[in-house]
Write a structure and sequence with these properties.
Largest sheet: 11 strands, mixed
Number of helices: 16
CATH topology: Amidase signature (AS) enzymes
Strand content: 5-15%
Order of helices and strands: HHEHEHEHEHEEHEHEHHHHEHHEEHH
Shape: globular
Low-confidence stretches: 1-15
Number of domains: 1
Structural class: alpha/beta
Mean pLDDT: 94
Strand order of the largest sheet: 1-3-2-4-6-5-10-11-9-7-8
Distance between the termini: 29 Å
Length: 507
């Protein structure tokens, strides 16, 4: 019998595959002593061995280390030395977060053999709760891309259809969660890199408010836009992981010092009185008909659940994409200047002088997309062009923030597609940068304004590919969007109706 397609109504009578459980379900089984950490980790190790050849989600797999840690936790739990609920729960980490003693490559030749001497703050927090790292997950090189085709090591594939991209740049994280190779994962989001792959892979992706989660130990792409967040199987898991990673960090100067919250307490399964704004600009030209139809059905569902849904204008959002690529590339140019072939990272083997070390190391160490963005960023920051491009983009950023503030003066949540399309074919956009950049049109404004946004599945298209819905909240209003997402999730029960089928195959 294939347990992977068991529906909710059958769960009580037929044994479930361990790797199909959510984290809160795994915790329940640990507490009831129906499972041990070793059994959980072994199940995931077996699952990775089964599906990794097809999906290609991992850069580094920590099989031996994970099993050893699980055994140790089980022993300590028996002795009463560990009472923490999350101890022994596995997780996957995007490969741009520093992990002490474990490679952090950013999926780049430049950092192919780089091993950090410290943990990122989010990793420290996971370790303090005795979570078990199953490995580092594939991504677009230095988080620059929307398909995970720009990795130096491999192209990650979408578990729903192996000929489709998983999205990016956190494609490895989203694909691993969708394929049940990890129960949850950390991703990073600079312009949609958590939400878009979550949409493509039919999982939940949360981009927190800028400053809510420490960026210390995250290899920077664009420092004013980057944010770490959860990718999970359901909204409750997302709230639980946010509880773990959120909080002030003195090591991150952009970290917000706000009161600690328990985000699981906001999951009320009730949206009566909630005011939802739907920007008409996100539903115009360029949006796939099936995506639009699915979002319209979601709006109807919210009305049935007691929410108010009204159309608004968010016209400035159309300029956010251009502003994002100017600001993002400018900051990337500055941040990636540290990779020079001298202190660490890739160094060319043949050179005549210092200038040639710099030139050849960067030319050989960076991929085409990274070089493209560095060049664009250097250009907009150069003398004579700074005012025309970078300064103007920052002014547009202010206008975007102001417009969102206007909408949030009257509404609680903004509803949009996560992406104008479902996952596209591998290779179909990778040679057309402009077309790839346009795929971020629904997500970048959230990063520009520093707002929280969550993507949740809201349906599938005729080919069986998941469709994602984005809910945007005001600053530090994660509770509002989490509850709105949770209530919708409970109403449609997507996770128990639809499963990745691993259709197609490597071309």
């Amino acid at each position: 019998m294939n347990f992977r397609h068991i529906r909710h109504r059958e769960r009580n009578v037929v044994k479930m595959d361990i790797t199909e459980l959510t984290v809160h379900e795994l915790i329940e089984k640990l507490e009831k002593k129906e499972l041990t950490s070793t059994e959980i980790i072994q199940s995931y190790v077996d699952r990775i061995k089964e599906k990794e050849p097809e999906v290609q989600a991992f850069v580094t797999i920590l099989e031996e280390e994970a099993l050893k840690q699980a055994k140790n936790i089980d022993e300590k739990r028996k002795l009463g030395e560990i009472t923490n609920k999350l101890a022994g729960i596995p997780i996957g980490i995007k490969d741009n977060m520093c992990t002490k003693g474990i490679k952090t490559t950013c999926s780049s030749r430049m950092l192919e053999n780089f091993v950090s001497h410290y943990d990122a703050t989010v990793v420290e927090k996971l370790n303090s709760e005795n979570l078990i790292d199953l490995g580092k997950l594939n991504m677009d090189e230095f988080a620059m891309g929307g398909s995970t085709e720009y990795s130096y090591f491999k192209k990650t594939r979408n578990p729903w259809n192996l000929n489709k991209v998983p999205g990016g740049s956190s494609g490895g994280s989203a694909a691993a969660v969708a394929a049940d190779m990890v129960p949850w994962a950390l991703g990073s989001d600079t312009g949609g890199s958590i939400r878009q792959p979550s949409s493509f892979c039919g999982v939940v992706g949360l981009k927190p408010t800028y400053g809510l989660v420490s960026r210390y130990g995250l290899v920077a792409f664009a420092s004013s836009l980057d944010q770490i967040g959860p990718i999970t199987k359901d909204v409750k898991d997302s709230a639980m992981l946010l509880n773990l990673i959120a909080g002030h960090d003195e090591k991150d100067t952009t970290s917000a010092n706000i009161e600690k919250k328990d985000y699981t307490k906001c999951l009320k399964n009730d949206v009566k009185g909630l005011k939802i704004a739907v920007p008409k600009e996100f539903f115009g030209e360029g949006i796939n008909k099936e995506v639009k139809s699915s979002l319209e059905e979601a709006m109807k569902k919210y009305k049935e659940l007691g929410a108010t849904v009204e159309e608004v204008s968010l016209d400035i959002a159309q300029y956010a994409l251009a502003a994002y690529y100017i600001i993002g590339c400018a900051e990337a140019s500055s941040n990636l200047g540290r990779f020079d072939g001298i202190r660490y990272g890739y160094r060319t083997k043949e050179f005549k002088d210092l200038r040639e070390i710099y030139k050849k190391s960067r030319s050989e160490g960076f991929g085409a997309e990274v070089k493209r963005r560095i060049i664009l960023g250097t250009y907009v920051l150069s003398s004579g062009y700074y005012d025309a491009y970078y300064k103007k983009a920052q002014q547009v950023r202010t206008l975007v923030v102001n417009k969102f503030n206007e909408v949030f003066a009257n509404y609680d949540v903004i509803l949009t597609p996560t992406s104008p399309t479902v996952a596209f074919d591998i290779g179909s956009k990778s040679t057309n940068p402009l077309e790839m950049y346009l795929a971020d049109i629904c997500t970048v404004s959230v990063n520009i304004a520093g707002l929280p946004g969550i993507s949740i599945p809201c349906g599938i298209d005729k080919e069986g590919m998941p469709i994602g819905m984005q809910l945007i909240g005001n600053k530090f209003q994660e509770e509002t969007i989490l509850n709105a997402a949770y209530t919708f999730e409970q109403a449609i029960d997507f996770r128990n109706k639809y499963k990745p089928e691993f259709k197609g195959g490597a071309k």
